[in-house]
Specification:
Elements lengths: L3 E2 L10 E8 L7 E2 L3 E8 L2 E5 L2 E5 L4 E4 L5 E5 L1 H4 L6 E8 L15 H9 L4 E2 L5 H11 L4 H16 L5 E2 L15 H13 L6 H7 L4 H12 L3 H18 L6 H7 L5 H12 L3 H12 L5
Parallel strand pairs: 1-3
Antiparallel strand pairs: 2-9, 4-7, 4-9, 5-6, 5-8, 7-10, 10-11
């Protein structure tokens, strides 16, 4: 299902805002918006869909969602149907240019800018600063104006410093990808994203950056902490998820071949290894979420 765009514009007298929700369950709509969103689940349990990632959420979950990254929060029926149980969340919405076009380009804030770029794939925050972030999110909306700006910058600093954060969605699912500061890697990413549907031999990708295959393999592993074959599989599986989520009329085998896999067995194996679900299970899980829209 293609995501519904739901604008989350700040009030005219604010550059950003916090939306505090208390309801029987969350708005189960596969959607996206231009604004970045930092979501704190105070009460409820269920399954979160962030790009092509499908993982549980519980009380205390904290996720930073980038611009136009599709997402959905599906509350567990066993939780929401129990008498007295309510779903409660705090969502901080802000645009990358909320303080001006060049604000995050100044040298002192370059680490924040890189983190906001990485949030294009969704970031789950788990580090020691999480407790302070949750406290600030509950208080932010009621702070005086200058303190609110300081509060947002403090939250972003704590996210930058979080070494335990987890990237949720695959690089290929989003329309843009996080660029490592290396023109050589940029060439690799660009070539792969333009050619992953076809066979890419190690010799060919090494030639793209004027290296021999052995040197390229060592270089890529050092820069990305994974081998090239694993990265290529991530790109292909991420694209498959995109096709599944867009309700393609093609069957699993057709999608597997369209994504660059030369046999369905390997596709199923790689998909299960990366997503924890078989392609059939992934489709059923997403369709179940899509059918559970609550307005």
């Amino acid at each position: 299902m293609k995501p519904r765009e739901l604008p989350r514009n700040a009030p005219v007298d604010r550059s950003f805002f916090v939306d505090h929700i208390v309801a029987d369950r969350f708005l189960n709509v596969w959607h996206c918006h231009e604004q970045l969103e930092l979501v704190y689940i105070k009460r409820s349990t269920g399954t979160k869909f962030i790009g092509d990632s499908i993982t549980p959420f519980n009380e205390g979950s904290l996720v930073l969602i980038g611009s136009y990254l599709p997402h959905l929060w599906l509350s567990d029926p066993t939780y929401s149907d129990s008498p007295g149980n309510m779903a409660e969340s705090f969502s901080l919405f802000f645009s990358p240019d909320c303080f001006g076009d060049q604000f995050f380009n100044i040298p002192e804030l370059r680490t924040i800018k890189k983190t906001l770029e990485l949030a294009q794939r969704g970031l789950e925050i788990e580090g020691p600063g999480k407790k302070e972030i949750l406290r600030l999110m509950e208080q932010l909306q009621d702070l005086p104006d200058p303190e609110r700006i300081i509060g947002l910058l403090t939250i972003l600093r704590l996210i930058v410093e979080d070494t335990d954060r987890e990237v949720l969605s695959s690089q290929s699912f989003v329309s843009t990808y996080h660029r490592v500061s290396s023109s050589r890697l940029d060439k690799v990413y660009e070539y792969v994203l333009n050619n992953f549907k076809h066979e890419i031999a190690l010799e060919k990708i090494a030639d793209v950056v004027s290296m021999n295959p052995s040197s390229f393999s060592r270089y890529f592993k050092k820069k990305t902490s994974k081998n090239f074959t694993a990265y290529l599989s991530e790109v292909r599986v991420g694209y498959a998820c995109k096709l599944f989520n867009d309700e393609s009329d093609k069957n699993i085998s057709e999608i597997a071949y369209e994504c660059g896999f030369n046999n369905i067995s390997n596709f199923n194996k790689q998909f299960k290894a990366l997503k924890g679900l078989t392609p059939s299970e992934y489709i059923k899980t997403h369709q179940k979420a899509s059918a559970s829209i609550y307005v």
